[in-house]
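Usage

Read records sequentially. Each one opens with the input sequence:
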Amino acid sequence: MTASLAVALVCAATLALGALGLRLSRTTSDFYVASRTVSPRWNASAIGGEYISGASFLGVAGLIFAVGNDMLWYSIGYTAGYVVLLVLVAAPLRRSGAYTLPDFAEIRLRSGLVRRTASVLVVGIGWLYLLPQFLGAGLALQTAAGAPRWLGTAVVVLVVVANVAAGGMRSVTIVQAFQYWFKLTAIGLPVILLLLVWHGDGSPSPAAVAGPEWSTPLSGSDHPLYRTYSLLLALLFGTMGLPHVLVRLYTNPDGRAARRTVFAVIGLLGAFYLFPPIYGALGRIYAGDLLAGGNTDAMMLLLPQRMLDQPWADLVSALLTAGAFAAFLSTSSGLTISVAGVLSQDLLRGRWRASVSGFRVGAGLAVAVPAALSLLGLRTGLADTVGLAFALAASTFCPLLVLGIWWRGLTRAGALAGLIVGGTLASTAVLLTVSATVSSGWPAALLRQPAAWTVPVAFGVMVLVSLCTPRPAGVGPIMVRLHAPEILDLDRGETRLREDVPPLRHAEPAAKDV
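and closes with the structure output:
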């Protein structure tokens, strides 16, 4: 009952804040990018809210609990990826005036085919990332309240679609900013109590309980050195290719604000990721029996029952359940926004195209496929699935953004070839891993962590094909737009660059009542 009440309160707060955003949403631009008026501090909290997913809240602690210190790289990589994003992408991407990643592809390369290819990849990455959110929601509600797994998925789907369809980016920004601070509180306060209990009862250290294999780096799996470097590559370069992260940069007023936003995000994420490793270590001491059943993702929710007396055990478990559910809601909202925007602009037709009504239809379609897979019984590790989404983003959008922003020589053919090759290789690795087709040896290592070979291949294909094909005309004005400082005021924040650079196919509509 306590856990169910906590989840109900989180959902009610989410819907109430979303209703506030609905009152503020009046134009199409409000739905897509909050009219580009979100301040760096507010946006940083919102990015932290959507980025800290179920894989971060439950999955990282579960991996450290099950595998050991090697999994600390997840916490480091999730945060350090924003350093790469800050240095290479944040300000130029905002200066481009795009709404979505496909928008940027069309602005830079003037190719409808590249844009449509990017749209398909955005939808694919969004679905792959949404799946563990729905799976985790079902697991959390089942573990804490004994509810059937489908109920957690259904609750998240209904709340997210209601918020996104009602107020768009305005609603989601308010909700995600609140949910970051709630999640930090929900994961941070119990740690203090649990550490006091551990210190007081004289229990041994995690290393003494788990042995040297758990506590020694690079000792717990086949080819651990390769897996570590490949994982870091996926996390560092995959962050800049995640559609739900990049769409938030479009909400800043200008490139300088986008850069300040990303800088603040690094601090917010660093604070949060101090806590999951502590839960993983305490789990080894008090909940080692969960390893036999493979229920590692639920360890954090069950740990208070092993360490605390009543009623504290139920209260702390309820707080953790509420925090986990907030993670599923906020990340699912950001992913739904990014996928709905692409669907409505590029894949829907007629009156649904690039309109508020089309955005709402896109929101429903965005959650339909991953929700169906979750309800049909597909099961996979939360952090593993998210890691594969990072690898897919790193193998496609990372080369497109880095080369498109910093190399004048990137051509339409080169970008298209790199997206197709990188996307095909990474998608194949994802499918073979999820289906458990290969389970051991080098093939399993290469497929489970594919970024070490798919990212260089994608970069190489883009460069080689671009060198062999003619460069598109009019690249100069676009590069000026991407790199000129805001002090020059080159029509800052507009989708049209100059008179000799064609505007976006879906330029920002005039303000109108919704």
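Summary fields computed downstream for this record:
- Residues 491-514 have pLDDT under 50 and may be disordered.
- The chain is about 75% helix and 0% strand.
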